[in-house]
Amino acid sequence: MPYVNIRITREGATSEQKAALIKGVTQLLVDILGKNPATTVVTIDEVDTDNWGVGGETITARRKRGA
Amino acid sequence: MPYVNIRITREGATSEQKAALIKGVTQLLVDILGKNPATTVVTIDEVDTDNWGVGGETITARRKRGA
Amino acid sequence: MPYVNIRITREGATSEQKAALIKGVTQLLVDILGKNPATTVVTIDEVDTDNWGVGGETITARRKRGA
Amino acid sequence: MPYVNIRITREGATSEQKAALIKGVTQLLVDILGKNPATTVVTIDEVDTDNWGVGGETITARRKRGA
Amino acid sequence: MPYVNIRITREGATSEQKAALIKGVTQLLVDILGKNPATTVVTIDEVDTDNWGVGGETITARRKRGA
Amino acid sequence: MPYVNIRITREGATSEQKAALIKGVTQLLVDILGKNPATTVVTIDEVDTDNWGVGGETITARRKRGA
Question: What sections of chain F are H helices per DSSP?
Answer without folding.
Answer: 15-33, 59-64
